[in-house]
Task: inverse folding
């Protein structure tokens, strides 16, 4: 089938518009982070690295970055440990309860972050007040927040590889559960795990609403600190936004590379 | 001692009875097919033998030992799946070597055995390809290699060729049979394709509604079916209603045919007989005196290569005839023809006046 020139031009215009729509705000943020002054002109008057140095020298910058990185790491670990075994067991036992779990996993999505945070504070305020204002409660809240993302990423990966058949094939090959997990299950869902980890980490790292409600200033995360900075200096806020983007991109790159280095991406076999 | 014995196996899924008292004995080195329509319980039976399901009742004996409670990974079976179920993260060689790897064999032993299997199955040059880089037939060979890698006590094949196209399937039928005979491998093969079952098996166990209804050599099942179900499921046949005229004769449309299996059926009783389409001779003119033939008219003529299939109406009886295409070329649609029936036919059930089965 040949595509006419007109259609190709239209497609290029559409694609170009989409790229501009996505990239322009990022470019503008980066420029604002480097601008001395940018108020009445189309482009910044001059460029400077002052805001970057000022941000880096700020004592809370390194501390909040470290906290948010740790929190994001813990959140994806907790979610993977919760979700992967549950979904694997459901897949190999062909459990009838999965639709219920599917629905339950969507609850954090359906609920606004503020409501989730308030519910957590009210609940733990009654049953375990010692957890209030602690990073533990924030970790639990972020784990719940990222759970749907992790759940659906792993579930889609499991559906794509038809785990039930692979599990039975491994059993008839003489493999026991630990061997099946190590040689069959985990290598075949590592792409889904990497995607889940990236998305889960990003959800935690960039969350402001829940973190602000649950711990606020008592255990400052990078996003909450960003919120405070926004009211003080827009240029430093722009720098922190760029940092946030860079951290997310680096994490994505590292996790995808890790997934690739552990073997080739499994693909569904073709017939014929 | 029987090598593998299934003894009164039952398996239910909720209210559905999938396997209802299946018993079967398989000798060492024998190739037995479980043949039947979809939902007849053949795959469930195979999965019971593999250890992927536990029977509700009954026992499976292997070399005199009960194994129905032995977990699948300890049974020493090799299984080939309908979906092939190759591990997508492993190459063809790694898939074949997987059963050896989980048994803890040294890398040297694994490589040596994998090379053996690769040569046996003609997979040379494909060892480093991933499943998605292989054709369906190649994937099925890898699946077979994986099942054979650890010298299984019984080789189980669950409709392994149902997703393959006809030429690949025909090649694999010959290859599987050759391998099974070469390795003297006790094999249980599940299929709904009677051509596969007849061409590969030492014996065929015909299944229907969770039960084995008939077991026998392919030749016996084909030529001497004991039931209407067997006659119609295995190969094409004409099942027609005839009347018993003697203790060993029936009348079919005015022609007397000999039968051997009329014990306890009285004169005048109506029976259903099976006449294979290829056993009927087609004549384009009235036969010489002495030969009794049925006169009919060609309704439909279907060319099928070496054979041409004709549907022929002889008064109130309708016959299907498979004639050599060279013979069938002499007749055309709507032409008047004569059918020479075989001297013998097979009674498959006793029927009442309305044609409903009343026994066998």
Result:
């Amino acid at each position: 089938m040949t595509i006419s020139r007109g259609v190709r031009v239209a497609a290029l215009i559409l694609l170009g518009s989409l790229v501009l729509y996505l990239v322009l705000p990022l470019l503008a943020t980066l420029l604002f982070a480097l601008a001395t002054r940018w108020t009445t002109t189309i482009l910044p008057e001059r460029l400077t690295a002052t805001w970057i140095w000022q941000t880096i020298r700020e004592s809370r910058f390194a501390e909040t970055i470290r906290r948010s990185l740790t929190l994001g790491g813990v959140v994806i670990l907790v979610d993977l440990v919760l979700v992967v075994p549950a979904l694997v067991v459901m897949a190999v036992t062909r459990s009838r309860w999965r639709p219920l779990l599917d629905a339950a996993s969507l609850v954090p999505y359906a609920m606004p972050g503020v409501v989730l945070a308030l519910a957590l504070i009210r609940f733990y305020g009654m049953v375990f007040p010692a957890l209030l204002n602690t990073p533990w409660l924030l970790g639990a809240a972020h784990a719940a927040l990222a759970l749907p993302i992790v759940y659906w990423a792993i579930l889609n990966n499991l559906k794509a590889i038809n785990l039930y058949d692979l599990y039975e094939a491994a059993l008839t090959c003489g493999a026991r559960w630990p061997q099946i997990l190590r040689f069959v299950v985990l290598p075949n869902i590592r792409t889904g795990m990497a995607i889940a980890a990236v998305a889960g980490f990003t959800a935690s790292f960039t969350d402001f609403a829940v973190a602000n409600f649950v711990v606020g200033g008592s255990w400052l995360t990078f996003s909450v600190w960003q919120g405070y900075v926004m009211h003080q200096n827009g240029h430093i806020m722009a720098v922190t936004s760029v940092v946030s983007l860079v951290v997310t991109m680096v994490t994505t790159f590292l996790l995808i590379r890790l997934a690739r280095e552990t073997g080739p991406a499994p693909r569904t076999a073709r017939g014929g | 001692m029987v090598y593998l014995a299934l003894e009164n196996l039952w398996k239910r899924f909720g209210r559905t009875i999938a396997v209802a008292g299946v018993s079967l004995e398989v000798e060492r080195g024998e190739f037995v097919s479980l043949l039947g329509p979809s939902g007849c319980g053949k795959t469930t039976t195979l999965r019971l033998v593999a250890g992927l399901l536990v029977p509700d009742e009954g026992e499976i004996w292997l070399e005199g030992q009960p194994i129905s409670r032995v977990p699948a990974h300890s049974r020493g079976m090799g299984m080939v799946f309908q979906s092939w179920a190759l591990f997508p993260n492993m190459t063809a060689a790694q898939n074949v070597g997987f059963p050896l790897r989980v048994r803890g064999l040294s890398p040297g032993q694994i490589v040596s055995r994998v090379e053996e299997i690769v040569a046996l199955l003609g997979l040379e040059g494909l060892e480093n390809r991933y499943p998605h880089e292989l054709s369906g037939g190649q994937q099925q060979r890898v699946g077979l290699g994986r099942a054979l890698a650890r010298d299984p006590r019984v080789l189980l094949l669950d409709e392994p060729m149902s997703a393959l196209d006809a030429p690949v399937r025909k090649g694999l039928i010959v290859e599987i049979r050759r391998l099974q005979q070469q390795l003297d491998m006790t094999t249980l093969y599940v299929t709904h394709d009677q051509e596969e079952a007849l061409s590969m098996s030492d014996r065929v166990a015909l299944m229907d509604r969770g039960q084995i209804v008939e077991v026998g050599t392919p030749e016996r099942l084909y030529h001497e079916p004991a039931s209407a179900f067997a006659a119609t499921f295995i190969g094409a046949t004409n099942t027609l209603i005839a009347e018993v005229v003697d203790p060993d004769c029936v009348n079919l449309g005015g022609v007397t045919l000999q039968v051997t299996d009329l014990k306890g059926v009285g004169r005048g009783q109506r029976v259903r007989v099976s006449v294979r389409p290829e056993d009927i001779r087609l004549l384009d003119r009235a036969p010489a005196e002495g030969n009794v033939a049925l006169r009919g008219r060609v309704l439909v003529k279907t060319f099928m290569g070496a054979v041409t299939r004709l549907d022929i109406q002889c008064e109130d009886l309708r016959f299907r005839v498979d004639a050599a295409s060279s013979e069938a070329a002499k007749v055309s649609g709507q032409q008047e023809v004569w059918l020479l029936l075989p001297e013998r036919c097979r009674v498959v059930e006793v029927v009442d006046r309305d044609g409903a089965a009343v026994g066998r």
About this structure: The radius of gyration of chain A is 23 Å. DSSP finds twelve helices and no strands in chain A. The CA atoms of residues 40 and 46 of chain A lie 13 Å apart.
